[in-house]
């Protein structure tokens, strides 16, 4: 991990390279650049054996570049750490809201992960990618009837969020097999993260209120249409603290005990996601192992104390699986210097491909891919190209001297960037390439102007 903030000319973009050591496994979520990042002999950034500047020439700009090795390493670390520390069965689900597309679902699937989906569209994508329905878990606080029917018909696990949904499921399930559900409960556990991404506190739109627990267990135990197999909770995202998930694990075992007193044998326990990542050198998230191990320990101890068999343990990481695996490459264009105030350097994307800075005031770091060893002599503000003053990707970025045509690479953009991207100002969404061993495969085609008007309809009377 990078330990000091770049403050002088000694520093260069190359300082963000991962420090690999054979004895010390790198937890991808603690790095800034993908694990395969290197600087090649042309002083250019290379990811997955591909020169970033060449990728931009080949696939256009802006470009999401996804490193397969980093993504697979994170999947494997989650999967294997659960195997190592948990004596019962475990299943890691990829929270695909972080980046849902066919290729990413297929990679997670090939590593043995299941998929967490949060809409009919995400479900459709996961199924099309070949994920088996029994490894798909469907979340959401307001799934439509059509979405619920789709989930029932395809036989995926449904994480029931509220009374309305339970009742709708009972109604829809009449003609079918009992529907396999988990109950999402609000744990009343707080954590320190942005307000928009906290979900475990009592004042949350998600899940059953803890005060309703008795009533929910009673209702569910009486419904032949429902096969309730477990409980689920998710307390928030980009979390660095370790205690909240320990508290959650202990609390969830109490829920299993309580359910048993209603005759419900719950065999699955899903602790959600939430592990944070390193966006800047001052971020210090736990490693994947440091997050997984205590959860396993707490559940094992609590189950032993309660004399409960170990449930199948599930978790749903999104950000910590994929954020670090991807960078976004942009081309630098215009700039504007306002004396004694700041210099804006503009890139050819912005809030449409990365809405996180304007939405959550998220802070990112960037390097200039074609000048990796050049000293960082300039402090500039990276502006997007949208007609909105708030469209600023990075304030006070330390960069080498840049000129139009240079390639700016923003790090840690794999999670909630493409998945939250828009067409604001009718910018076509960028392409994405998957890189591995010197090969680059297109996984998302760049949108075209034709794509932008594909859903437009011009009433006859408006045609000239
Ligand atoms: N499970 C559930 C039920 C969730 O709601 C989420 C995230 C996750 C798992 C995955 O959490 P993660 O491991 O990625 O922290 N758009 C925001 C993040 C919203 C998170 C929504 N739920 C952002 O860009 O920061």
Would you write up a description of this structure?
It is a single chain. The longest helix is centred in the middle third of the chain and has 19 residues, at 288-306. The protein has twelve helices and 20 strands. Helix 2 (68-85) runs parallel beside helix 9 and helix 5 crosses helix 6. With 464 residues, it is α/β, with parallel strands linked by helices. Strand 16 and strand 17 (392-399) form a beta hairpin. The radius of gyration is 23 Å and the shape is globular. It has helices at 52-59, 68-85, 102-110, 120-128, 145-154, 163-173, 213-222, 243-260, 288-306, 319-322, 356-360, 449-453, and strands spanning 38-39, 45-47, 50-51, 63-67, 90-95, 114-117, 136-138, 157-160, 179-184, 226-232, 268-270, 312-315, 326-338, 342-347, 366-368, 378-383, 392-399, 407-411, 431-436, 439-444. Strands 4, 13, 14, 15, 16, 17, 18, 19 and 20 form a nine-stranded mixed beta sheet that branches. Strands 5-6-7-8-9-10-11-12 form an eight-stranded parallel β-barrel, surrounded by six helices. Strands 1-2-3 form a three-stranded antiparallel beta sheet. It folds into two domains: 3-67 and 324-451, Lyase, Ornithine Decarboxylase, Chain A, domain 1; 139-317, TIM Barrel. Ligand LLP binds next to helix 10 and helix 11.
């Amino acid at each position: 991990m990078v330990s000091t903030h770049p403050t002088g000319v000694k520093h260069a973009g190359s300082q963000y390279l991962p420090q690999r050591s054979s004895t010390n496994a790198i937890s991808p979520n603690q790095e800034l650049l993908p694990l395969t990042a290197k600087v090649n002999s042309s002083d250019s950034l290379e990811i997955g054996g591909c020169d970033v500047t060449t990728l931009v020439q080949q696939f256009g700009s802006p470009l999401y570049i996804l490193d397969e090795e980093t993504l697979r390493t994170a999947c494997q670390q989650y999967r294997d750490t659960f195997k190592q520390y948990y004596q019962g069965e475990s299943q890691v689900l990829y929270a695909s809201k972080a980046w849902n597309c066919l290729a990413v679902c297929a990679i997670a699937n090939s590593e043995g992960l299941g998929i967490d989906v949060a809409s009919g569209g995400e479900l459709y994508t996961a199924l099309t990618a070949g994920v088996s329905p029994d490894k798909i878990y469907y979340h959401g606080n307001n799934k439509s009837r059509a979405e619920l029917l789709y989930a029932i018909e395809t036989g995926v696990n449904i994480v029931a969020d509220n009374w309305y949904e339970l009742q709708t499921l009972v109604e829809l399930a009449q003609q079918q097999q009992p529907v396999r559900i988990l109950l999402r409960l609000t744990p009343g556990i707080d954590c320190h993260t942005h307000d928009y991404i906290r979900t475990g506190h009592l004042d949350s739109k998600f899940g059953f209120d803890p005060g309703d627990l008795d009533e929910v267990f009673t209702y569910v135990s009486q419904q032949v249409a429902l096969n309730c197999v477990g409980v689920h909770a998710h307390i928030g995202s980009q979390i660095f603290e370790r205690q909240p998930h320990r508290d959650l694990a202990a609390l969830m075992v109490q829920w299993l005990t309580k359910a048993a007193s209603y005759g419900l044998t719950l065999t699955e326990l899903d602790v959600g996601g939430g592990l944070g990542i390193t966006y800047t050198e001052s971020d210090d998230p736990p490693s994947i192992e440091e997050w997984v191990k205590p959860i396993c320990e707490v559940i094992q101890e609590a189950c032993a104390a309660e004399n409960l068999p170990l449930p199948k343990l599930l978790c749903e990481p999104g950000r910590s699986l994929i954020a670090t695996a991807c960078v976004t490459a942009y081309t630098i264009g215009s700039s504007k210097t306002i004396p004694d105030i700041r210099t804006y350097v503009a890139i050819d994307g912005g809030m449409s491909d990365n809405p996180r800075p304007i939405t959550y005031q998220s802070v990112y770091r960037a390097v200039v891919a074609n000048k990796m060893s050049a000293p960082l002599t300039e402090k500039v503000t990276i502006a997007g190209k949208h007609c909105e003053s708030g469209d600023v990707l990075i304030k006070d970025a330390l960069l080498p001297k840049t000129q139009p045509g240079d390639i700016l690479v923003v790090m840690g953009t794999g999670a909630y960037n493409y998945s939250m991207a828009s067409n604001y100002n009718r910018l076509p969404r960028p392409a994405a390439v998957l890189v591995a061993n010197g090969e680059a495969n297109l996984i998302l085609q760049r949108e075209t102007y034709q794509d932008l008007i594909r859903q437009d309809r011009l009433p006859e009377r408006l045609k000239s």
